[in-house]
Amino acid sequence: MGFKCGIVGLPNVGKSTLFNALTQTAAAQAANYPFCTIEPNVGEVAVPDPRLDALAAIAASREIVPTRLTFVDIAGLVRGASKGEGLGNQFLANIREVDAIAHVVRCFEDPDVTHVEGAIHPLADIETIETELMLADLDSLERRVIALEKRVRGGDKEAKETLDLVARSLVLLREGKPARLVARKPDEERLFASLGLLTSKPVLYVCNVEEASADRGNSRSQAVMDWAAKEGAKAVVVSAKIESEIAVLPPDEQRDFLEAVGLEEPGLNRVIRAGYDLLGLVTYFTVGPKEARAWTITRGTRAPQAAGVIHTDFEKGFIRAETIAYPDYVALKGEAGARDAGKLRLEGKEYQVADGDVLHFRFAN
């Protein structure tokens, strides 16, 4: 699995430009007017991971198969979206279907690109989007309370637990704080997720800056960074314009272009790493002469469930996982060297797969 990330923001902040760069397609129409993206555009992008190339070189793999991420370009929200303004209801429904939100924030000046609010104020833009999402969540929860109270009076235990979570969420939302800040126990996560709250989703702020600030950011992006740190979110700086130019270049020319603009890597890499960290995702590898492949799982996933990502039969018939840590595989030049050095471990059903593990699953048919 990867993750499904919805790209949101006000109109004309660079959402579709970023989407096109991320997916290296022109599927989303980037235009200088609101609602140019009427239907959400969905694109997949390979996750760049130099470890995969290193493993493939050692194993002489004929094919390299990276894991993939899904991005959804969602049309620009506007003030009043929670009440149906613009295409609000449709946009909010699209957001409910993603795992995380990449909130693109305009941190650049350009007289040729209008701003829907008339001025460039990144934090005000963030508050506009957050407010609309919070208002939608408030409306959703308040409409559930009476039905839940009725079920509680009837002795429904789950309804009681749900009502408690709803009440705690409402307190925060009425204070102007997102639902993701609700204090909850691990065993409440499933029930909390079932509420389907827009502001419960983890947020990655993508600060879209002008080309000259792509390497260090600017004062506007720094304000967003500070905001994100305060609320426990993630933030990265990219120049969507530069990313769109990089996306259409062949790999060797990309390196020269990046060096010319003072960047060590494309912004896509930073977005992916931040997204992984945000959602607690890790990568494991399967390696052989046929192919070297990367697989994405949630941190803490046990070996049988990690095997199930490849095929459900692997999970059902799981016996053990032959495991080599990535540094050992590389240092010892592959599986044979790791085995001879005693670095190949046999792990059972309770083993939690670590980031970078090279795995070979044994299972019963």
How would you describe the overall organization of this protein?
The chain is of the alpha/beta class and 365 residues long. Helices cover 41% and strands 19% of the residues. The protein has 14 helices and 12 strands. The chain has a 6-stranded mixed β-sheet with strand order 2-4-1-5-6-7, sandwiched between helices. It has a 3-stranded mixed β-sheet with strand order 3-9-8, with helices on both faces. Helix 1 runs parallel beside helix 8 and helix 4 runs antiparallel to helix 5.
Short description:
The chain is of the alpha/beta class and 365 residues long. The protein is built from 14 helices and twelve strands.
Series of secondary-structure elements, N-terminal to C-terminal: EHEHEEHEHHHEHEHHHEEHHEHHEE
Largest sheet: 6 strands, mixed
Question: Over all CA atoms, what is the radius of gyration?
Answer: 23 Å
Number of strands: 12
SS strand fraction: 15-25%
| Sequence stretches where pLDDT stays below 50 over 5 or more residues | 26-38
Helix content: 40-55%
Straight-line distance between termini: 23 Å
Mean pLDDT: 86
Number of helices, counting only DSSP H or I runs of 4 residues or more: 14
Structural class: alpha/beta
Q: Sum up the overall morphology in one term.
A: flat
Q: Strand sequence of the main sheet, in spatial order?
A: 2-4-1-5-6-7
